[in-house]
Amino acid sequence: MGIFQEMFYALQPKRDFMHRSLEMSFYSDVIGILGAFVLLGAFFALQKGMLQDDAPAYHVWNMIGAICIIISLIFSFNLPSMVLEIIWLFIAIWGVWKTHHA
After folding, report:
1. Most buried pick, 46, 65, 84, 86, via CB within 10 A?
2. Rounded to an integer, what distance in angstroms lies between the CA atom of residue 41 and that of residue 77?
3. Is 23 helix (H, G, I), strand (E, B) or coil?
4. Residue 75, φ and ψ in degrees, nearest 5
5. What is the pLDDT confidence band of residue 10, given thresholds at 50, 70 and 90?
6. 28 close to 76: Cβ distance less than 8 angstroms
7. What is the pTM of this model?
8. Above 60 in pLDDT, residue 92?
């Protein structure tokens, strides 16, 4: 085996890792954008009167959106956004709990 072939094989795992990283970044971005649309959709539906703020569906949509954005932030970390989404998630969980125990 020649020196160039050895170098090629030595570099191969790094290229696979980079390819997987780019692929995961793409999927995490898609999940994050989906989460943003879910949050904005829930807020829009609330403003249009299609959802009520005391309805479990509103809080569940907020939970789903926050979870999607948190998943995205795991792969592309941003501390202020992560803090915001974790708090958002806990408020949504509290809202679901409150609607079921009211």
Report:
1. 65
2. 24
3. helix
4. -90, -25
5. low
6. yes
7. 0.79
8. yes
State the Cα torsion 47-48-53-54 to the nearest 10°: 170
Q: Residue 76 corresponds to which amino acid?
A: S
Contact (Cβ atoms closer than 8 angstroms) between residue 68 and residue 37: no
Cα gap 58→95, rounded to integer Å: 9
Residue type, 98: K
Nearest to 65 by CA among 49, 44, 79: 44
In the three-class reduction of DSSP (H, G, I as helix; E, B as strand; rest coil), residue 45 is classed as helix
Q: Are 6 and 36 in contact (CB under 8 A)?
A: no
Q: CB within 8 A of 29, min separation 6: which ones?
A: 72, 76
Contact criterion met (CB below 8 Å) for 65 and 35? yes
State how far the Cα of 72 lies from the Cα of 16, in Å rounded to an integer.
21
Q: Are 57 and 92 in contact (CB under 8 A)?
A: no
